[in-house]
């Protein structure tokens, strides 16, 4: 049943450019889709391991800058007459490199910060994001600082026998974002339904029991951090090549808050939660903007979030699934207790 719903939703989103002719709304869907990818990556940490990262936008921004600089090239003086020179590579190479480097940064942050928990982990992630923002702001020779990187080329895909397709129009970028979102959804789904995913849930529900039955805490959480950071980097790369201009504001804290809202309102720990929450809170400002002043827009935004969390405290997707009988709400806790035992048997 869930697979059928997923395929129907994918078919609906694939049909949108066929009947939606307003370029403004299509642009809003593209940017919303990019942040939904970021929210899905954050959900892997917040929803399946219970680790709240308020510096997640750092990986998004790293992906954006890596992809942009790979595509534009650079000449950076290091010491005296010694320079590091990079000639422009194809944008698709920048996209792939953004995933790799963002994932590597996720590995480093994970190895360094997963020894702490709770508020300490949150502080570490916020500090990391601020350090990266300051580097982007002050390393003017590389990033242009507040002047921004401009004229970032669009992603180009080689088609065998047909030449190259430049993904420059909104129509092309919509399907590119949809494809990356679908692949990210599939990868996260396969991960959380594997024994690693069960280990993540076990750590979230009862870390002491999970450790007692042999689950490697650092390895499991670091794997989640690497994949989460890599997907966030992919989203950042898409953003850079679509907007075609980036500056240190890409690391704005409000972007992380937006992703958290998408995850929590949609339902953290559910695969579809960030998608549903992302569509609602990504498009809500678009519909409020023509009819309300900015102050009223933010008030309405907050009121809608409060109402959703008051009526459906577990999030939209888990609450609706429980009411429709698609999930056994009462058995969730009992099932999670058995997660560590099953995972231990597979590790043994």
Automatic annotation (TrEMBL):
Membrane topology of the entry: Multi-pass membrane protein
Q: Where are the membrane-spanning stretches?
A: 24-45, 57-80, 92-110, 119-140, 146-167, 174-192, 221-243, 250-266, 272-291, 298-316
**Pfam families named in the record:** BPD_transp_2
What is the protein's major site of localization?
A: membrane
> Where does it localize?
Cell membrane
Per UniProt, the keywords (alphabetical) are:
Cell membrane, Membrane, Transmembrane, Transmembrane helix
Q: Does the keyword Membrane apply?
A: yes
Any one Gene Ontology molecular-function term assigned to this protein's record: branched-chain amino acid transmembrane transporter activity
Gene Ontology terms, cellular component aspect? plasma membrane
Signal peptide range equals: none
Q: List the InterPro entries.
A: ABC_transp_permease (IPR001851), LivM-like (IPR043428)
Per its UniProt entry, which superkingdom is the organism in?
Bacteria
Its protein name is ABC transporter permease
Q: Which organism is it from?
A: Tardiphaga robiniae
